[in-house]
UniProtKB/TrEMBL annotation:
SUPFAM superfamilies tied to this protein: Glycoside hydrolase/deacetylase
Protein species of origin: Sphingobacterium hotanense
Keyword Signal: yes
NodB homology domain location: 100-309
Leader sequence residues: 1-20
Alphabetical keyword list: Signal
Protein name per Swiss-Prot or TrEMBL: Polysaccharide deacetylase family protein
Protein's UniProt keywords contain Signal: yes
Coiled coil: none
Length: 318
């Protein structure tokens, strides 16, 4: 108890001030070593600035007042690098105590497979996010019905994955941002989508709040134009692949489940304690694939601190 009392919560500015000065000390020590002991192997430094940015990013995702840092006195008595490690561990410990948020996202529907996904959402009472291609909904009566099932299901939220899916010629599509944006607007209108939430075909791009992360620059101008028009764009942290026709997974349920656990554990997702999984509707055309999806949901549900969320609520903070 007394030990706990020794730990205090102090303001982020004080913390960052201490942290920056730690970095300066580390930097000057390295220089001194290089001059005074040239024969010695220079000490390999961690990428200090990146670490700092990384931790700041993690902190940014939290209600900072919930984090308990070691008292200033105890930070001063230990080595700067050790202090940094302690701080990171302290942040991770706090994060590990909190709820984790999982976003199961399905692209390219409605397609064969969408109806089964819709049924699994209901059977498992699990929220799913569907990024839809409007052209597919107009391809047949069956697919139109499948889209309507999605839109009526309170456990499924429907978002924009463009009208044409770029006709799968992504580079050409994104070379004309105005036309590309018009394609997303056409999708929104055709499906009557209520939320301005997009996933860009063929691109893992994130653009919302102060986040802008682009995987391939050919989509960046379109992303910025969508952003200027009030859209939020979401990519993914991890993709699960299954061969649609055979139902054979590229990654087994256990592999993808372990990946999700590992990424949540080592904070390698875009936002800590939030993980976005990408799947495609046509992966679940047959029983085999559908059983795998049910199996993954069951595995994840074993964790009482895991919660399934709609991407419209991304990211969850504390
Ligand atoms: Zn797609």
């Amino acid at each position: 108890m007394l030990k706990k009392k020794l730990l205090i919560t102090f303001s982020i500015s004080l913390f960052l001030g201490a942290f920056y000065s730690c970095n300066q000390i580390v930097g000057s020590t390295t220089t001194a070593n290089a001059v005074e002991t040239p024969d010695q192997k220079p000490e390999i430094e961690e990428p200090v600035q990146q670490d700092t940015l990384y931790l700041m990013d993690k902190l940014d995702s939290l209600n900072r007042n919930l984090i308990v840092f070691p008292a200033v006195d105890s930070l001063n008595k230990i080595e700067p690098k050790q202090a940094k490690r302690n701080l990171r561990d302290s942040i991770y410990r706090e994060l590990n105590k909190k709820d984790k948020h999982i976003y199961l996202t399905f692209d390219d529907g409605p397609l064969i497979g969408s109806r089964a996904i819709d049924s699994i959402a209901t059977a498992k009472d699990t929220k799913l996010s569907a990024f839809l291609v409007a052209k597919h909904a107009n391809m047949s009566k069956r697919l139109k019905n499948d889209f309507e099932r999605y839109s009526k299901n309170p456990l499924v939220e429907c978002y924009n994955h463009s009208y044409t899916h770029a006709n799968n010629r992504f580079h050409a599509f994104y070379s004309n941002p105005e036309l590309a944006v018009a394609d997303f607007e056409r999708c929104e209108e055709a499906l009557g989508l209520k939320q301005k939430i997009v996933r860009m075909p063929g691109r893992n791009i994130w653009l919302f709040d102060d986040v802008r992360r682009v995987d391939l620059t050919s989509g960046s101008q379109t992303a910025d134009l969508l952003g200027a028009n009030g859209y939020r764009i979401y990519g993914w942290d991890v993709e699960w692949k299954i061969h649609g026709l055979s139902g054979n997974p590229v990654q087994s349920v256990n592999e993808i489940y372990t990946r999700i656990r590992t990424m949540l554990g080592n904070k390698s997702t875009l936002k800590p304690n939030n993980i976005v999984l990408l799947m495609h509707d046509d992966m679940f055309q047959n029983k085999k694939g559908q059983q795998l999806l049910s199996g993954l949901i069951d595995s994840l549900k074993q964790h009482k601190d895991y919660h399934f969320e709609f991407i419209s609520t991304y990211p969850h903070k504390y």
